[in-house]
């Protein structure tokens, strides 16, 4: 079995509708529900729930926590997938690239533009593609989103198109 560490941090992928609030919120982790829908017979996924918050309220300390957890796995040769909010995903990825300069395995960040459980959500697609990419891409830090793998130094969020794009394609 190929091991993968899945670090969860919240973001839209983990949001759910809270009737009492009349809004979407990060309340309880949703990743186990996502994983239960997938057929992954060759993977041994270890989930570490680091936090469950919107990425707009992440602190430098939160990003250090993510880097420390990623370092634990990558130092043992285990690839890492990080679920993360899209608004500051690139920022966190750059911190990871800075803190983990000598990676032996990939670190992949992913999330969703639409929460898991909402019709048309991209959560399952992005999570599945990230888990596959963990076995295919070279060591480094990447964002995996909507069928593409972006090196962290060459990606930005395009809010008008609700997707990530290469910086070099401007």
UniProtKB/TrEMBL annotation:
Family annotation (Gene3D superfamilies): L-asparaginase, N-terminal domain (3.40.50.1170)
Domain L-asparaginase N-terminal: 4-159
Amino-acid positions noted as binding substrate in the UniProt annotation, renumbered to this chain: 55, 86-87
SUPFAM superfamilies, sorted: Glutaminase/Asparaginase
MF-aspect GO terms: asparaginase activity
Catalytic residues (positions): 12
InterPro entries from the UniProt entry: Asp/glu_Ase-like_sf, Asparaginase/glutaminase-like, L-asparaginase_N, L-asparaginase_N_sf
Pfam families xref list: Asparaginase (PF00710)
Annotated PANTHER family: 60 KDA LYSOPHOSPHOLIPASE (PTHR11707:SF28), L-ASPARAGINASE (PTHR11707)
Name of the molecule in the record: Asparaginase/glutaminase
Organism for this UniProt entry: Terriglobus saanensis (strain ATCC BAA-1853 / DSM 23119 / SP1PR4)
